[in-house]
Design brief:
Elements (H helix, E strand, L loop, with lengths): L1 H9 L5 H9 L11 H9 L9 E5 L4 H14 L4 E4 L11 E3 L2 E2 L2 H19 L8 H17 L3 E5 L16 E4 L7 H4 L3 H8 L9 E3 L4 H13 L4 E3 L5 E7 L4 E6 L4 E7 L4 H21 L5 H10 L7 E5 L2 E5 L4 H13 L6 E6 L6 H8 L5 E4 L10 H15 L4 E4 L3 H11 L5 E6 L1 H13 L8
Parallel strand pairs: 1-5, 1-6, 2-5, 6-7, 7-8, 13-17, 14-15, 14-17, 15-16
Antiparallel strand pairs: 2-3, 3-4, 9-10, 10-11, 12-13
């Protein structure tokens, strides 16, 4: 590959920051469905993805948590694991993990320099420039296939499934957590259309594990699995969950699968939806045990589930007074948050801060949250697609009237000042919650935990 070295000599990136800025500078090329560019990049590097065992995870919500459970149990069982997720919460390198650690900055720089000349060559053709997500995905494959050599790669889709950039791989197992109303502008207006996109990750003969619930979604997933001769393991049919105990700090449940029953299992992530995500992970591991000779002791399964953490999802980041972060940025996420606030947490008054992106389904998200709050601080994330706080506030006012609920509404566009107001409002017996887009969650989390700015992004 002499042309690669030639290109690299012309304009090598000198630092991690330069490499990150180059990749993130490709954002204007947007999310463009289609796999031609990523396949071309893979071909240039002799298709390194063919040497890796992928667990491909799609779904509207719960992808990240499901990936966290899978990674944690596999690590605990003694395997080397690559985990590719998006968007990230603190730092760009979070997306490319090996055994729970971020890719080293110098490795990312080296791989970016290997990719850059080829990305620029493709940009000069009628295919156009590979996008930021395409280059990140290619970088992940190179990291796992040429640098770290994991036994398994936990591989999260970016958007949708069928035309998602990650869908050029043939996994050993496919996971579809659930289907809901998010990215409708790209994936389609109905649950059926969104499900068809997600079901696009189902490959011939590759088993599928899913917790989709809507009858129309179940039908599409089942039909797609049948057409591909893939065994389908559906929550409520091939495996079920019985809740044993729920508290603010942990929840315990029993798993009943086709191959065996396992109980009790404990997770420390909050919310009923996390039991579902954990169940999907357990069924996935059970399928891998049956078909791929995965070696997993029950003790490692138990400990791995219990150890799993996922930042920014019902995460208590301050204890006194309590402050909870939750990236509920679509109606289903808001519904899960509202259920947890009703069922899991105890408080005298609830104070909530929210910031959103402009392109989301806000009324249905707000509908779940507004009836529960005593005060609402509306702010805006520090991000180019932010919805202005004033616009979000007027929507809140309309909804407050429609729903007939009363609460104090505070408008503070500066998120740091908004956070200060929120914390001042919160008494010792109260609960503060910061929710909305992950871009806001990322900033607040870095600021509260590390007192630094986050490198946030998609």
């Amino acid at each position: 590959m002499s042309n690669q070295h030639q290109g690299a000599l012309e304009a090598p990136l000198a630092t991690y920051e330069e490499a990150r800025d180059w990749i993130e500078g490709l954002v204007p090329f947007g999310i463009r469905p289609g796999l031609e560019r990523i396949l071309k990049l893979m071909e240039i590097f002799d298709n390194p993805q063919r040497r890796l065992k992928f667990i491909h995870v799609a779904g509207t919500n719960g992808k990240g948590s499901t990936c966290a459970y899978l990674t944690s149990v596999l690590l605990r069982s003694g395997y080397d694991v690559g985990t590719f997720t998006s968007p990230y919460i603190t730092k760009f390198t979070n997306r490319f993990q090996y055994n729970g650690m971020d890719i080293p900055e110098e490795t990312l720089l080296k791989l970016a320099n290997q990719l850059k000349p080829h990305v620029e060559a493709i940009a000069a053709t009628e295919l156009g420039s590979p996008s930021m997500f395409e280059v990140s995905t290619a970088l992940a494959v190179l990291y796992y296939a040429r640098e770290s050599y994991p036994d398994f790669v936990v591989w999260e889709t970016g958007l949708g499934g069928r035309l998602d950039v990650t869908n050029f791989v043939t996994p050993i197992v496919s996971v579809i957590t659930n289907v809901g109303h998010d990215h409708m502008d790209i994936l389609g207006n109905t649950i059926e259309e969104v499900t068809r996109e997600k079901a696009g990750i189902i490959k011939p003969g590759v088993p599928v594990i899913s917790a989709v619930t809507q009858p129309e979604a179940v039908a599409i997933v089942a039909d797609t699995a049948r057409d591909n001769n893939s065994s389908l393991y559906l929550l409520g049919e091939q495996f079920t969950e019985t809740t044993l105990e729920v508290s603010e700090r942990e929840q315990t449940f029993a798993f009943q699968g086709m191959f065996r029953a396992i109980e009790p299992l404990t997770i420390t992530l909050s919310g009923a939806h996390q039991r579902t995500n954990a169940m999907v992970a357990v069924m996935t591991l059970e399928v891998m045990r049956q078909y791929y000779a995965l070696i997993m002791d029950d003790e490692d399964l138990r400990q791995g589930l219990k150890d799993a953490a996922w930042p920014g999802r019902l995460e208590m980041v301050v204890e006194s007074p309590r402050l909870l972060l939750d990236g509920a940025h679509n109606p289903e996420g808001a519904q899960s948050l509202a259920a947890a606030l009703r069922d899991t947490y105890r408080y005298e008054r609830l104070h909530l801060m929210m910031g959103m992106l402009a392109n989301k389904n806000h009324p249905d998200t707000l509908r779940h949250i507004l009836p529960l709050v005593d005060s609402l601080v509306v702010t805006e994330p520090d991000f180019r697609k932010a919805k202005p706080a004033g616009e979000l506030a007027s929507l809140v006012e309309d909804m407050r009237e429609e729903l007939g609920c009363t609460f104090e509404l505070i408008i503070e566009p500066n998120w740091k000042k908004a956070l200060e107001r929120l914390q001042k409002l919160t008494g010792d017996a109260d609960l503060a919650v910061v929710t909305g887009t992950l871009y806001l969650i990322a900033d607040v989390r870095s600021y509260l935990l590390y007192n630094t700015e986050s490198e946030k992004g998609w």
